Amino acid sequence: MAWLGRKKLAFIPLSRTNIQPPDVIPPDWPGQIMQRLFFDPAKDPTTGNSIPGVDRSVRAYFHTVSSGLADLDVVLLPAQTIAEEDVPPDALEAAMGAQLRSEGFVGAAIVMLGGPGGGSTSQLSNFAWSRFCMSDDLGAWVGEILHQTNLCDLPDLFDFAGSYPSDANMGPFDQEAGYEATHLSGWTKRAVEWLDPSTVALHPGGVADYTLHSVSLIQPPPTGRIAAVQIGAEAPYLMVEARLQADQFDVNIPNEGVIVYRVQTSDPLGNAQNDTAPLALLTKTALTAGQSFTTDGATIAVGGAVLGGGFSIQVETIEAGQLLSYGDDGNPGNVSNPTIVGFGGWLDFKFLFAGQDLSGENRIYAVDQTGQLLSYSDDGNPGNVSNPTIVGFGGWLDFDFLFAGANLSGENRIYAVNQNGQLLSYGDAGTPGNVSDPAIVGFGGWLDFRFLFAGKNLSGENRIYAVNQNGELLSYADAGTPGNVSNPVIVGFGGWLDFRFLFAGKNLSGENRIYAVNQNGQLLSYADAGTPGNVSDPVVVGLGGWLDFAFLFAGKNLAGENRIYAVVQ
Questions:
Q1: Does residue 240 carry a pLDDT above 90?
Q2: CA–CA separation, 445 and 421 (whole Å)
Q3: What percent of the chain is predicted at pLDDT more than 90?
Q4: Is the pLDDT of residue 176 over 80?
Q5: CA triplet 174, 177, 180: central angle to 5 degrees?
Q6: Most CB atoms within 10 A, among 369, 448, 466, 560?
Q7: Which CATH superfamily is domain 323-568 in?
Q8: End-to-end CA distance of the chain
Q9: 138-147 vs 58-65: helix crossing angle, rounded to 10
Q10: How far apart are CA 151 and CA 154, in angstroms?
C-alpha cells in the first residue's frame, strides 16, 4: 500500500499495574516519547553526547526514506493503565478504537515500558494497532509502523530468510529485514510508491551500461541516472541498486557500493510465497569498483563511483540460444562464470556435441535442420564461434544418438546409432563433406539405451558409456574393427536413469570425469576407475540451475582448455 502525504496516528503511553517488578514510569514520559518521535539527536557512541544536526527521530526517518513523500502527524494521548502482564497491541481497541477512527486517526500505537523486544502489530479492518517499548530502538518503532494497514502494510522480510549475512536475509540493506533503521531497498520503496517505477530500468537483455543513483539519496534520480535495474520480468528476478552511507540511517549499512538481490515473490508488498525469502540478498557486502558478480544468467560489473552519489555498472545477461562455456576446477560449486562464445541460434540444432577431428583439432559439432553436419572451432573469446565447415552434407538427422570420442587406438571418431540399432564410427578429416564411410563397430541393440556418450576413465582409457533400462552405467571399449564393441563393464550399478543430462569430459586440471545433472538442477562430477560399480561418490561442482539448458556437453576450445558447454533454452 502507498503511504503518501500526512497520516494521523495516535500514540498512547501504557503502563501495567500488576507486573513484577512494577513498571517504573519515567519523569516526563510524554516528553520522552515526543523526543523519539519528532527530534531525537543522535548520540556519539564514545562520549554519549548529542551529535549536532543529526536527527534520528521517527518523523525524520520517514521523511528521509520516503524522499519527503510520507509524513506523520502523531497526537500523544493521555497515559493509560492496564491490569495485564502480556499486553497485545490491540489491548485498547475495545475502549478507544471506535473513537479514534471517528476522529480521523488511521492507526494507533501503544508505548510501553520494559523490553526490549516488545514490537508487534495487529491488523484490524482498515486500522492497525502497534506496540513497542521505550527500550526498543528506532528500527523496531519504524518497523512496526511500516506494518500498519493504512500506511504501508509491509511484512517482515526475515521470516523465511535465515540470518544475515550467512543466509538470504537482506539484513541492513532493507529496514524490514534487519530492523536497523536503515533505508528500505529499492524494491520495497517502489512497492510503497516512494520510488517511481519509471526510475527502475528493466534490462532488455544482452549488454547495457547504467549509472545508478544511490537509493539512499533523495529520489527521483537526476536525468541520465536510474534508481535500480531489474533483470527479468517475472519472479524470480534480480534487482541491482547502489547504496551509500549517505545519511544518519544508511550509515548503518556494512559498506558502500552496489548490491544484487533476487525477488522471489510475486506479491506486490513482498509477502513470502512457498516458504521462501521474498528478497534474497546475493551480495553479502556491496560490490565496489572493479568487482563483478554472476548469478542467474546475469553478470553485473561495477565500473566505479561517479560524482553526485552514483555508480556506473554494466549488466550482461544470457539469452536463449546462446552457447556458453564453463570451466570446472573440480571444487564444489565452482562452475559459475560462463563465457558466451556463441551469441545466438544454437537452439536450432538437433544434435550438439564436442570432439576432435582426425588431425586432433578441437571442434564443436552440430546438425542443422537440413541434416548437415557442421564443425565449429571455439577460440575461447565471446561470440567467436561463428563460421562452420560442413563436414557432412546430409542425412545426419536420421540418427538417434550422435556423439564424439576415440577408440582404443586413440583415433578420434564420431559415433552414431542408426535406425537398425547399429553403432557407426566415422572419421572427420576436417574438410567439407569428408565424413562419409562409417565402420559398423556395434552390430545391434544400441537403440535400447537412454544415454550414450564417450569419454575416458581415470586411467585414460577411451570408453563408450551407456545407460541401460535398469539404470546401470555400462562402459565399452571400441577396438575400431567391425562389431568389436561387445563386452561392457557395469561401472555404475543403478540410478543412472534419474539424470536429465549425462556426458563425459575433463575438469581444468585434466582429470577425466563423468558429469550428470540431477533433479535438483545440480551438476555432479564422477570419476570412473574402470572397475565394476566404482562410480559412486560425486562432487557437486554446480550448485543449481543446470536443468535450464537445452544442450549440455563437454569438450575443449582451440587453446586446449577443458570446457563444459551449454545452450540456454
A1: yes
A2: 5
A3: 79
A4: yes
A5: 70
A6: 466
A7: Tachylectin-2-like (2.20.25.650)
A8: 37
A9: 60
A10: 9
